[in-house]
Each structure stands twice: as C-alpha cells, then as structure tokens.
Design brief:
The chain is of the alpha/beta class and about 550 residues long. It is built from 17 helices and 14 strands. It has helices at about 10-40, 45-60, 65-75, 80-100, 105-120, 125-135, 140-155, 160-170, 175-190, 205-220, 225-235, 345-365, 370-385, 390-405, 410-430, 515, 540-550, and strands at about 245-250, 255-265, 270-275, 275-280, 295-300, 310-315, 320-325, 330-335, 435-440, 460, 480, 500-505, 525-530, 555. It starts with 9 loop residues before the first helix and ends with a strand. The relative contact order is 0.05.
C-alpha cells in the first residue's frame, strides 16, 4: 500500500547477502591475483603496500601477503632514519587495523614483531600499552602474551615490574590463567633458586606464594587457574642430574654401570679414574641405544686380587668415589637418596605444606568430588611422604579415575609410578643393595624408574598389567626375569639383555613364534617358561623353541 514501508522477506534478505558476498569475493580474488602478479614481477612500490593493506585488513591470516609486504618494505628502506621510522610507524598502524579484525591472527602478531626489530629506536613503551589494551579485551589472548614477552625482553623491562603487573591482573580476575602462568615464569627470574634446591623458587618466597594462592583457591574452588599455579609450587624438580647408582659386574670380562637421575648424552658421561689414575680409553654406551640415557655402561675388567677405588667426575659436579671389593662378581652402591635432589623438605616447608594439606582436606569436605582439590592433595602427600601416605594417595587417584574418566589411564599410570617409587625406596634400604627386586600384583600398567633396576640380578614384575617391555632395555646385569600374568605381546625389547639366564613369561599374550625368535641372541638363556600363552596352541612349539634356542635346558609350554 502507498505510504507504508516495504519489509523485505527472509528470502530477499538472504539473496542480497549472497550477492554482497559474491561481490566481495570477486574483489578479494581480483586483488589477490594482482598482488601475486606484482610479486612475480618484483614490483615493490607504494601500490603494492596499499593493495596488500586492503587485502590483509579483510583477511589478516594470508601469510603470503605478509611475506610480500615485508619484501616491499625492505626494498623501500633508505638511509634516512626519520623517513624509515615514519614508514614503520605507519606499518604498526596498519597491523593494528588487522588485529581489530582478528586479535588472534598469527600473521599479524608475527609481522608486528618483525617491524619492531627493524626500528632504529623501537617504541617499546607504546607497544606495552598496546598489550595492556588488548589484554583488557581478552586476558587469555596467548598471541598478545607472547608479544608482551617479546616486548619486555627487547625493552629490558624489569621483571620485577612485570611481576607486579601479573599480580594486578590476578587481583582483577582470579580466573586469569595466563597471568598465573606468566607469574610462574617471572618468579624464578626475580627470585632465582639455589642450584641444590628442588623447589622452583627460594623457600621464603615459596611459602609466601603458597599462602597467597591458597586464599585464591578458597575464593573459588572450581576455578582451575590458581590450582595449576599451586601444583607448580608444590611439585619439585631437580635442576641437575645426579649419580644415583654405580654397579660392577664381572660377567663377559667386566662392566661398570652408572645410573643417573636424568638422561645424559655421551659427551656428558663422567671421566673415570681407577686407583688414582685416569683411564683415558673409556668407551661408554647406552644399553637402550638412545642418544640420551639414564644408564651408561663401559667394559671394565677389575683385578680380583685387590680392592679397586673408582672415581667418577663430571664438569661442575662433585666427584664420587666407590670401592669395589677384591673378588667381587657383582657389586652395587647407591650414591644418593631416591627422592628429588636427594634432599629432605625443610621444617618450614614441611610445616607450610601440612597447612596447605589441611586446607585442601577442608575444601574436599566442603566441595566433595572436586578434581583440582584431589589432584593437589595427591601432589602434597607425594611431596610430604609418598611411602607413608601411599594408601591415601591411591584412594585419591581412584576417585579421580571415576571423576575424570577421560584421563583414567593417566591416573592409573600415576598409581604405577607410586607403586614403583615406594617399592624402590624400600629396595634402596635393603642390605643386598639392589641385587633382587620384586613387585607383584600391584596393577602396574607401565614400568617407571626402570633405570634404577639396571644393576639388579633378579627382577620379578609378575601379576601386573604391563603391556610394554621397552623400559627393561636397561637391565644390564639381570640374570632372572619373571613377567608372568601380564599383558605382554612383544618380547623384542628383551633381545639385548645378554646376561639373561632365566626368563618366565607365562600367561601373557605371546601369539607369534617371531616373538620367540627375538630371544635367539640370548646365548646364556637356560630356562624359559612360555606356558599359558596363545603360542602354546601350536603342538610343535616346544620342538621349534629347542631348535631355535639349543642352549636352553628347560622349556615349559604347558
């Protein structure tokens, strides 16, 4: 009717929007074609800058256009610092218009870093303000956080100032995970810990931070951000490798075995002196064949008529000396405690962790089934005394398996780690000093700390849930290995344990004769038990094994 505004139908609106999109697409593709032609002809001019600016404002993620733009700028560079600075300032403005389109554009943030590196005198303070603006818009924009770290490094911004800013951001919003993470990176810089401590920061600062973050988790126990920071404070990690074990075995001409707390490369292996004289022709090798290994071995034939004093030294670390008694056929000495850095918690740290534990227990009562509370309790109890709190830790991990089913395998593996760690602690204190290790029926899904079994003569890991034997490649001196009632289907990792005399793998998943063939290099193997495996369905399996392994005196297949 006349005088009445015509309202467009949905179909008409959709048709108009489609037409508009087609026109934009045509213009964009046309501009893109022109930009590629200019680049192919090496035409670096103002028109190219204008053209790429229009295209990048529409789509900041076109990496090729950013590359072309950098080529243009480098070809337009002159000796006039003022003109060059003006050009770069204009470029910063163009990039900011792209960031308004997409604040998380990889290409735009990367280009901004490149620009700052080209300035005669970069405007660092202005860029810090830009970071502040963008972090107010989105405090978890990791591109902006990365750029902020780049700016603070280039501007020599004091880390103390950045630490204050991280605190301000956290006080503004306790859920700001990025600010908590940034704080974890700044604290060790502002307060560097001593080389011997396993804590990420000095104890006095650690205690202050613990008290602060506990207040944060009580404010909102469901917020995961402060929990991550709290767990970072609690978890301990040694900064340098320690010599954990030294072993000697006279088998096959004699071998010296060194076991470390962290993997080392060949060039990091120790220098060896025997009875005060340096041994220059020492060839170390890793039994697992890895470039970085916890265990390093060298062939060494010590005299049986007298004691041998062996000194091991590494650059920057304390010398260690062991004495192998005369006539020793097998010798093991633990060089340090099993715990992180081999150090006990200080009384003050222990007292603070006890307080944090009580707070977490209270939170667990107020907010049951909170995953973060349970995880933190696991970490705290582990740090305080994993052996004495073993049952409680396992209980919390079982709760976590039920609560967080997507990560159930992770918690199961943590139980395996706990079982191995506590068993090795007991093993460490035994008089035999590492000759026999036994851990049955503990539902092990993996074999952590296997390097600490390198000097064991007998290892029994039967009645568990083990599937992979790769960690056992380090069993240098093992004569007897019992792996009954697991879930093993691959025996190839055992092919390098040439000292093996007795192997029991009954009730596993060995289904192929090829797996038995992996054992043909075990020239000392005398006893083999493969009963209750699928391979035993072959009525000729015993004769096949005898033919393959003629040295074996006892074969059990039923």
């Amino acid at each position: 009717m006349h005088g009445r505004l015509k309202i467009k139908t949905t179909a008409e609106q959709a048709a108009e929007k489609q037409k508009e999109r087609e026109e934009k697409k045509k213009l964009y593709l046309g501009g893109l074609t022109k930009a590629f032609e200019k680049r192919s002809s090496r035409s670096y001019d103002e028109e190219g800058l204008k053209l790429t600016a229009q295209l990048l404002t529409a789509n900041p993620d076109a990496a090729t256009l950013w590359n072309f733009r950098r080529e243009i700028l480098l070809n337009m560079k002159c000796d006039d610092d003022e003109a060059w600075t003006k050009l770069l300032n204009g470029e910063l403005m163009m990039v900011e218009s792209c960031l308004m389109k997409n604040p998380k554009s990889y290409g735009a943030w990367h280009h901004r870093c490149w620009i700052m590196q080209k300035f005669p005198s970069p405007p660092w303070n202005d860029e810090l303000e830009l970071c502040n603006r963008y972090l107010k818009l989105d405090e978890r924009n990791f591109h902006c956080w990365d750029y902020r770290r780049f700016i603070t490094t280039g501007s020599h911004q004091q880390p103390e100032d950045e630490l204050k800013i991280s605190k301000q951001l956290i006080e503004r919003n306790l859920s700001n995970y990025s600010a908590w993470h940034y704080r974890s990176k700044l604290l060790p810089v502002v307060y560097p810990p001593s080389a011997s401590t396993p804590h990420p920061i000095p104890v006095d600062i650690l205690i202050k931070e613990l008290k602060t973050v506990v207040e944060a988790v009580f404010t909102d126990p469901s917020d995961q951000s402060p929990w991550f920071f709290l767990r970072w404070l609690i978890n301990r990690q040694e900064k340098y490798p320690r010599l954990m074990q030294v072993g000697y075995d006279d088998d096959d001409g004699g071998s010296l075995i060194c076991v470390f707390s962290q993997p080392l490369s060949l060039k990091e292996t120790p220098v060896l002196s025997i009875n005060g004289e340096e041994s220059p022709n020492i060839d170390w090798f890793a039994p697992n064949g890895e470039t970085f290994s916890y265990v390093w071995v060298t062939k060494l034939n010590l005299p049986s008529s007298e004691d041998s004093s062996i000194t091991l030294s590494r650059s920057g670390l304390e010398e260690k000396t062991v004495t192998v008694p005369a006539g020793s056929t097998h010798f093991v000495e633990w060089m340090t405690e099993l715990g992180v850095c081999g150090e006990e918690l200080s009384d003050l740290t222990r007292s603070t962790l006890e307080d944090v534990k009580e707070n977490c227990v209270t939170l667990d009562e107020l907010d049951p089934d909170n995953k973060w509370v349970l995880l933190t309790l696991v970490d705290i109890l582990w740090a305080l005394d994993a052996r004495n709190y073993q049952d409680k830790i396992r209980s919390y991990l079982s709760q976590l398996e039920a609560l967080d089913s997507l990560r159930a395998n992770y918690y199961t593996d943590m139980k395996s780690k706990l079982a191995m760690e506590t068993s090795l602690t007991k093993h460490r204190m035994k008089a035999e000093g590492g000759s026999t290790f036994k851990l049955n029926g503990s539902n092990l899904t993996r074999i952590p700390f296997s390097h600490l079994l390198a000097c064991s003569v007998s290892v029994d890991l039967s009645h568990n849930e083990i599937t992979s034997l790769n960690p056992l490649k380090n069993l240098v001196t093992c004569r007897e290995l019992v792996l009954d009632s697991n879930k093993i289907s691959d025996l190839s990792p055992l092919s390098g344990i040439t000292s093996l005399c007795k192997l029991s793998i009954a009730n596993n998943k060995i289904a192929s004769f090829d797996q038995i063939m992996c054992l043909k290099n075990l020239c000392k193997l005398e006893v083999l038990d493969v009963s209750s495996n699928p391979i035993c369905d072959d009525i000729d399996i015993e004769s096949k094994i005898k033919e393959l392994l003629p040295v074996v005196k006892s074969i059990k297949v039923t």
